[in-house]
Write a structure and sequence with these properties.
This protein has helices spanning about 5-30, 35-45, 50-65, 65-70, 75-95, 100-125, 130-140, 145-165, 170-190. The chain is mainly alpha-helical. It starts with a helix and ends in an 8-residue tail after the last helix. Helix 1 runs antiparallel to helix 6, helix 2 packs across helix 3 (about 50-65) and helix 3 (about 50-65) packs parallel to helix 7 (about 130-140). The protein has one domain (about 5-185).
Length: about 200
């Protein structure tokens, strides 16, 4: 497989798996990451599907790139749509956990798959997701640290999502402490090397 073909295949595989990982965490019923708490809260109040809210939120966040002078790639635009479709497809076939033990297994599988999927689509190097680009754009324009900007964004969306009825719980904590180390380990192994200059 050529390098461009591998990058595209890895991008779309990563985005689909990301959506499935979200569905696993939702069906586990033990708490979601901050953005998904927000998505779930909005979905409950609007009657829209979870995936539709993910798509709309991604598109709105992408519009916020304009004043930040961020440039989207094919991976950025694909992120907006593919993840939303994949999470709704996952939710259509995955049943609720039904017990705490199964819920824990689904939660851990979901977080682990999320780390793998993140490494895959980021490693493809075809553009950051809308939410990641928002963070890096704000870091560049405000001069604040990545930690401060990311924390501010995630605390904000978590608070709004919780107020709207999104699920906050053990899964929220597990995700917060696990996703960074998982991506740190997996991303170097999944990064597709840029072509050598001619």
């Amino acid at each position: 497989m050529t390098r461009p073909a591998r990058r595209l295949a890895q991008l779309y595989a990563g985005l689909v798996l990301y959506g499935v990982s979200m569905a696993l965490q939702i069906r586990a019923g033990l708490g979601l990451d901050p953005w998904d708490v927000f998505h779930q809260g909005v979905a409950e109040h609007t009657g829209l599907s979870f995936g539709t809210v993910v798509v709309i939120t991604g598109a709105v966040v992408l519009l916020a790139w304009v004043p930040l002078r961020q440039r989207p790639g094919i991976g950025t635009v694909s992120n907006v749509f593919v993840i939303g479709v994949a999470v709704d497809a996952g939710l259509a076939v995955l049943p609720a956990a039904g017990s705490t033990a199964i819920g824990l297994a689904m939660l851990l599988a979901g977080v682990g798959l999320n780390g793998l999927a993140s490494g895959a689509y980021i490693g493809a190097g075809l553009g950051p997701g809308p939410r990641d680009g928002l963070m890096t754009g704000l870091v560049r324009t405000t001069g604040r640290s990545v930690r401060a900007v990311r924390t501010s964004i995630e605390v904000g969306v978590l608070a709004v999502g919780a107020a709207l009825g999104g699920t906050v719980g053990l899964g929220t904590v597990v995700y917060a402490f696990s996703i960074g180390p998982l991506v740190h380990v997996l991303l170097p192994r999944l990064t597709v090397a840029a072509p050598a200059p001619a």
